[in-house]
């Protein structure tokens, strides 16, 4: 499996790509060419071009959740490419309207449009998307220190309700010796995700790449680090919505790799 970071908040010194507060990973596993999220704008397309990645050859697009820093690139994907053969895999709640006051914070593309333009697959259950990669679907909450946050509001047939981001999900890459968690924001809790990955595969989690949605060191962050130490997770690539303070604290216990646009990983 090969993973390339197309969008992240961070860029590297002497690597001339663009960054933005969003996330997009390009993943190759066998014949499958997969996009996890699309960032906030068309930046993922520009960076892919500079990296020599042909997005017209994509086979699958996975959306981790509905926030616009992960779905903002969808209009550009639909406009610039023939997406009729692309399978798009995500949770059924992903395209619900989201608001923070008067500000729209959800996907700029509707579920109806996605059905018209792509081969849309909505699932709360795990979906195998390649020989070794699985979309986790809805994440069960198993860690007492990782309860779902209430963020903004979500539109339902009954009106606007508190948004607990039930759709938030991740990918796992399974090897003979263990699994790697590939996440967008981890609103469902990065440890909940790791626990679910272990439950599904009966294998240990070896590494993590993606956002943890942690802005400060607090009790939850401390318990997260303790969990990862206890589980023996050694390959750490926290990025996007993970603050410097949290990365630094993790690095004191488990070495952290710097993530930026253009990073390439092979697992």
TrEMBL record:
Family annotation (InterPro entries): DHPS-like_MBL-fold, Metallo-B-lactamas, Metallo-beta-lactamase_dom, RibonucZ/Hydroxyglut_hydro
Residue ranges constituting the Metallo-beta-lactamase domain according to the UniProt record: 21-240
Transmembrane residue ranges: none
Recorded GO MF terms: transferase activity
CDD domains referenced in this protein's UniProt entry, alphabetically: DHPS-like_MBL-fold
Superkingdom of the organism of origin: Archaea
PANTHER family in alphabetical order: 7,8-DIHYDROPTERIN-6-METHYL-4-(BETA-D-RIBOFURANOSYL)-AMINOBENZENE-5'-PHOSPHATE SYNTHASE, METALLO-BETA-LACTAMASE SUPERFAMILY PROTEIN
Name of protein: MBL fold metallo-hydrolase
Origin species: Methanocorpusculum parvum
């Amino acid at each position: 499996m090969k993973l390339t970071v197309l969008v992240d908040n961070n860029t590297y010194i002497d690597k001339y790509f663009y960054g933005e507060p969003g996330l997009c990973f390009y993943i190759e596993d066998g014949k499958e060419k997969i996009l996890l999220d699309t960032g906030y704008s068309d930046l993922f397309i520009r960076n892919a071009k500079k990296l020599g990645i042909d997005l017209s050859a994509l086979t699958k697009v996975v959306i981790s959740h509905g926030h616009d820093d992960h779905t903002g690139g969808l209009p550009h994907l639909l406009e610039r490419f023939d997406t009729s053969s692309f399978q798009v895999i995500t949770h059924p709640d992903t395209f619900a309207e989201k608001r923070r006051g008067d500000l729209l914070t959800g996907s700029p593309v509707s579920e109806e449009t996605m059905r018209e333009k792509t081969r849309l697959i909505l699932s709360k259950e795990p979906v195998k998307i390649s020989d070794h990669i699985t979309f986790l679907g809805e994440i069960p909450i198993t860690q007492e220190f990782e309860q779902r946050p209430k963020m903004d509001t979500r539109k339902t047939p009954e009106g606007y309700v508190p948004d607990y981001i039930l759709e938030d999900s991740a990918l796992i890459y399974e090897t003979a010796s263990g699994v790697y968690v590939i996440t967008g924001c981890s609103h469902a809790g990065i440890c909940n995700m790791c626990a679910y990955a272990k439950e599904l595969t009966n294998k240990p989690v070896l590494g993590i790449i993606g956002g943890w949605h942690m802005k400060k060191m607090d009790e939850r962050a401390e318990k997260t680090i303790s969990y990862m130490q206890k589980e023996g997770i050694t390959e750490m690539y926290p990025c996007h919505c993970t603050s410097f303070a949290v990365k630094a604290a993790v690095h004191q216990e488990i070495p952290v790799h710097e993530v930026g646009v253009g990073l390439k990983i092979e697992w």
